[in-house]
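Data card: per-record layout.
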Amino acid sequence: MRKSIIVIAVLLMGTVLQASGQKGLKIGHVNMDSIATLMPEVDSMKAAIDARRLIHQKTLRIEEESFNNLYLTFSENMEGMPTTWVEAKQEELVRKQQAIENLKKVDFPNELQEIQEQYLQIMYDKIMEAVKALAVELGYTYVFNSGEGLSGVLYASPSEDITGLVIKKLNLTPKPGKPASKPTGSEIPAPTPAPAPKTGTGK
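The structure for this 203-residue chain is written out next.
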């Protein structure tokens, strides 16, 4: 599907340039996912995830032991205790059980995703720098990503930026201090980081 999109985009660009009489269109594509798997940051990412997994397992073991001890104490002492005491202990058990489930299903997965995205961002930034440098050096007009990660145009030659012309065609006025067209090339937005685990603030 991604390759089909790239082919369509290339054909459309070729048609537009052919109609306008422009020549010398040079288009390339890279598989950022394949490149990323070869980078040293992959090993660092795996090590960071494994280290975090060990910490999580230790934390989870402590919380589960605390829950089991509390449940044992509750079971052994509930006979003859006031209803208020029994209800309070039951609520405490429920809270602890919910906290354990939250660790398993929310906190830990979010932490792993955050670690992964931090390293992926570093790798993609390095690849993007190399892509832009090579595109300028070798005279590419556009460079696409053919992998499954980031999508769209990784680089676009500033000479092909017609933002200013479109603004003029629409009879619009650029905002002061903001140029209608800034020749920096096109770049894909980075993956959105996972939200950091929330911490209670207590009142």
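Known properties of this structure: Residues 2-169 form one domain. The longest strand covers residues 27-30.

See the next section for split statistics.
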